[in-house]
Amino acid sequence: MKKENIENNAVTIISEGVVLDGKLSSKGNIRIDGMVKGDVSAGGNVTIGERGEINGQVNAAVIIIGGKVMGTVIANEKIILESSSVLKGDLVTKILIVEEGALFDGKSSMNGKEKSDSLLSGEMDEK
Fold first, then answer.
1. DSSP label at 54?
2. Which pLDDT tens digit goes with each residue over 43-81?
3. Bridge partner list, 94
4. Residue 123 lies in a domain
5. Which of 67, 68, 107, 109 could form a disulfide with 48 if both were Cys (CB 3.0 to 4.6 A apart)?
6. What is the Cα–Cα distance from 82 to 39, expressed in whole angstroms?
């Protein structure tokens, strides 16, 4: 039990200057200050620093974007778009916080898991 708690509290850091080409997943938290070309998935939180960049889908409990994301962003709890953020892609979450100055180009859905499943499969109704 203790080992599981350590894994869930662990933080994976992709430092500035690092480029990761492929999928990144963690049971804990992830902080990205470099670049990830691929999907990112975390059991905890994902934080993208001001100089961080992701080209791919992001899945986590809470997602804080300070840098750039090109792709779908899905949070079980909350997404925060900080003033320095750029998001080009759709998002799904229960709570959305957008700070003044954030740039968002895409669709948003705040209707829970059933909508995130349909968004992933491309079945969202156009209204």
1. E
2. 999 999 999 999 999 999 999 999 999 999 999 999 999
3. none
4. no
5. 67
6. 21
